[in-house]
Amino acid sequence: MAFDYSLDFQNLDLRKHPELYRVGKGEQGVLLVEPYKSEILPYWRFKTPDVARESSQKIYELFLAYLEQDDFAGADMARKFLQMGYTRARRYANHKSGRKYKNNPQKASSREEQIQARKDILPYQVDPLKAESAAIFKEKWIQAKTNDKYLQLLAKHKQMYEQE
């Protein structure tokens, strides 16, 4: 099932209501779902490889702690933060400003303008430090998403709560 953006995330504790948590695609909801966002976000950094190493290790430790508590939503949120560490560091590795497009496709007023905006990609300016930071996060993200207990809890969560 798709991630449910209609929930009142500011007032909803998904640790108490795991039945409302939806995995969605990729990083959906990573900056919404509480209390996990507040628990993980303070550690999320990727400015240098040393910072990325420390950050990804701490987030991976949180991931393992959530698994230890059979807290799937928490583990999945930690996995999403690791994935976002990879994708954002990779974006900055490729584009110094962190922006991929000259104009934001999401702010286009028509479908045609959106398509055109996605064609106007800013030039690559590879930053090897950010690329290394991305690789560090990617390694932890892969470890998380292939973790046996995580995969078991994912299957159980989908079976219990995400059947349509």
From TrEMBL:
It comes from the Bacteria. Residues 93-114 are annotated as: Disordered. This is DUF4385 domain-containing protein. Residues 93-102 have a biased composition (Basic residues). Pfam families: DUF4385.
